[in-house]
Amino acid sequence: MPNTKSMLKPTGNILTQSPQSKSKAMPNNPNLKLPLLITVTGPSGTGKDSVINILMNHLPTLRRYPSCTTRKIRAHEKDGEDYFFVTEQQFEEFWQQDDLLERSNHYNNHYGIRRSVIQSLLKQNLMPIKDMTFSGTQACKKAWPANTFRIALLPPSRERLFQRLTKRDPNLSEEGKARFKLIAEDLDHTHNPHYVFTNPDMKGSTLADYDAVFVNDDLEVTTYAIAKLLKEEQQRRS
What we know:
Layout: E1 14-17, E2 37-41, H1 48-58, E3 62-64, E4 68-69, E5 84-85, H2 88-96, E6 100-106, E7 109-114, H3 115-123, E8 127-131, H4 134-143, E9 148-154, H5 158-168, H6 174-187, E10 212-215, H7 219-237
Parallel strand pairs: 2-8, 2-9, 3-8, 4-5, 9-10
Antiparallel strand pairs: 1-10, 4-7, 6-7
Helix pairs in contact: 1-7, 5-6
């Protein structure tokens, strides 16, 4: 594993890759399948949404899919695009039918990822992609072990992270300050492959739990590098 200084190198830089994804020259692994089910995990302020949006232009078979939630729809949102907005009863029915990979509760609203939505995309030979917490990636890996490809995205430094977070929230709320503290502490340990992350999005994971880990220093460079890796992974599995 690289030392801490590698966090500051220009990106497109992969901190780590699993043995399965390191080389196109490796023989095909019959336990790995297409299409890829891609998960993107990283702390707040790493540019996950921006990376996914640009990736959609590089890989035409990529498809974002929404989670479902019981919260009220907001004026700027569209049902089926931002979220699937459902009732409490519908949400519980999905859970009872084992159609939710995982569920969580925030401010008395339920959130979950529907198994059937992902399965439908895979059957169409499309590549589902979504930013999610480590617990979500675990659920995907358990449900589709041969298809899931897990990407972690990290900020290049404490300073850049702080800039990104304060751009969203200029005064940085108490919750934001607490989140920044956890993420900043995690960044001090990226040289240690056994370190267990504490920030809410990656909590409980180590670098070894991801197939590739990128430092997002430059959005376009990082996105290009991820797109290149995914194309190579597709080619290797075909």
